[in-house]
């Protein structure tokens, strides 16, 4: 008994089978060519990757001075603290605070304080009050609503709900810090 199965003739590839396979391949390539740009556009651009981390040479910063750098569009304060400032920050660890934090938890190296320079109340940039000593705590003062931070960036007075934020950073050497 013979059958006329148009799909298979003597084990050879028929025109119909070829068209099925060819259509599948063309469809797959078409879907991939449409999907690739959609997926690729979700990757971060080169300028975003460049801002993801920044290396800072801290050797030229004199003792007692603060520099501000830009990282991810935010100011980052890098303070080279004096021995007196370090001693004061450590001695105030047990003082009553709005957001209690030890100085050793805020600075990997006691000589250097690295923190994001944005007030945690409404996002203003606090002023370095260490030179003028006009506040009660000798750190930073937010002119928008009067928040005062001490020399370790801990909130001591005012409406700010928490201490100045700390970025992720690590020391690549004694004089080079990678932020981010």
From TrEMBL:
Its cofactor is [2Fe-2S] cluster. The keyword Iron applies. One of its GO terms (cellular component) is plasma membrane. GO terms for molecular function: 2 iron, 2 sulfur cluster binding; metal ion binding; oxidoreductase activity; quinol-cytochrome-c reductase activity. InterPro entries: Rieske_2Fe-2S, Rieske_2Fe-2S_sf, Rieske_Fe-S_prot, Rieske_Fe-S_prot_C, TAT_signal, TAT_signal_bac_arc, Ubiq_cytC_Rdtase_Fe-S_su_TAT, Ubiquinol_cyt_c_Rdtase_Fe-S-su. Pfam families: Rieske, UCR_Fe-S_N. The keyword Oxidoreductase applies. It is a single-pass membrane protein. It catalyses: a quinol + 2 Fe(III)-[cytochrome c](out) = a quinone + 2 Fe(II)-[cytochrome c](out) + 2 H(+)(out). Its main location: membrane. The main subunits of complex b-c1 are: cytochrome b, cytochrome c1 and the Rieske protein. Component of the ubiquinol-cytochrome c reductase complex (complex III or cytochrome b-c1 complex), which is a respiratory chain that generates an electrochemical potential coupled to ATP synthesis. This is Ubiquinol-cytochrome c reductase iron-sulfur subunit. It comes from hydrothermal vent metagenome.
């Amino acid at each position: 008994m013979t059958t006329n199965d148009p799909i298979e003739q003597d084990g050879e590839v028929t025109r119909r089978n070829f068209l099925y396979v060819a259509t599948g391949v063309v469809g797959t390539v078409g879907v991939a060519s449409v999907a690739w740009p959609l997926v690729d556009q979700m990757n971060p651009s080169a300028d975003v990757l460049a801002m993801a981390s920044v290396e800072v040479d801290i050797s030229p910063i004199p003792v007692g001075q603060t520099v501000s750098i830009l990282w991810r569009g935010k100011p980052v304060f890098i303070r080279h603290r004096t021995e007196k400032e370090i001693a004061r920050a450590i001695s105030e660890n047990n003082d009553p605070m709005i957001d209690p934090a030890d100085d050793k938890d805020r600075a990997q190296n006691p000589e250097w304080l690295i923190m994001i320079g944005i007030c945690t109340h409404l996002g203003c940039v606090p002023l370095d009050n260490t030179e003028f000593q006009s506040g009660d705590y000798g750190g930073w003062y937010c002119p928008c609503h009067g928040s005062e931070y001490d020399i370790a960036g801990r909130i001591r007075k005012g409406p700010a709900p928490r201490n100045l934020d700390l970025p992720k950073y690590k020391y690549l050497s004694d004089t080079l810090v990678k932020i981010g």
